[in-house]
Amino acid sequence: MKNSSFKEIEKIITGAKKILAVSHQAPDGDAIGSLAAFGFYLQKIKKPHYLLCVSGVPESLKFIPGAARIKSKHPKNPFDLIVGFDYGSKIQLGIESYLKKYPKIPILIFDHHLTADQAADFGIIDSSYTSAVELLYDYLKAINLKIDKKIAYALVVGILSDTGFFKYSNNSKSMETAADLTKRFNIKPVEIDNKLNGQLKIAAAKLLGEILSRVKHHHKGDFVYSWVERKDLKKHRLTTDDINENISILLKNLKDGRFSLFLTEKSEGKVRGSLRSRPDKNYNVAKLAMKLGGGGHKYAAGFRVKGTIDSALKLVAKYAKK
Description:
The chain is α/β, with parallel strands linked by helices. It is 39% helix and 18% strand.
């Protein structure tokens, strides 16, 4: 796929009668921020649309304006255009059955992941961007859309989330965009930080302790790892949303290993892997995730595989060998 110009993208969007906008499963602030901001844009141009994230909006991201409009169930009818955000690999969207039913719907993409198997027909894939929302922001600026506070807030959440409040990236353009939006619309990053990172439950803290007690260093692959099973979550009456981001941050900050791996038993025979690294370790986990059928950013990526915790661990070890 050749990248489209912003003018070409605007023509495609305005030419569609109704649009299905979707982002990846297990969404982060960038995914939900992108969908929410894009939804407000479509409202402004009076374009019928449906916003979708098949795994739903995590509790920690429901504060984003427009998040309540995002559905988790596939629409029943076909659309003229699918717009995908921040997904890296088409399988991450979780819409295989929908695409099988309606295979001729074209896909337009806004993505900053490395080019993999996004299977888009047009749009932009540009890994120089730190987040999909920043790419969307440049598009909205290029078409002279009047950005309001709701759109700005969703965009800022996406930038701060994907850069780890600029702990993972020192991209000056991202900083300038976030600074401009926060100043113009009186958005307070500390409030966003509280919403994203200040909601840890006591039960989750206890489970995190158990998960940390399992941490091991895989010497041949040179990575640290831990895992959580469904029975652990059931015991503490928690969901994966209650722990995933927190444990990924804790594992990422361990001194040992080139990267960290956190495995989650999603259902019987299905496992999700979260891969994290840091700029000082300079290990590209996105390339590793792509070998496993997933995708992501250089320092934060993920994948889904069939099997058990043990088989998923062996698969990662196989591809992570030095």
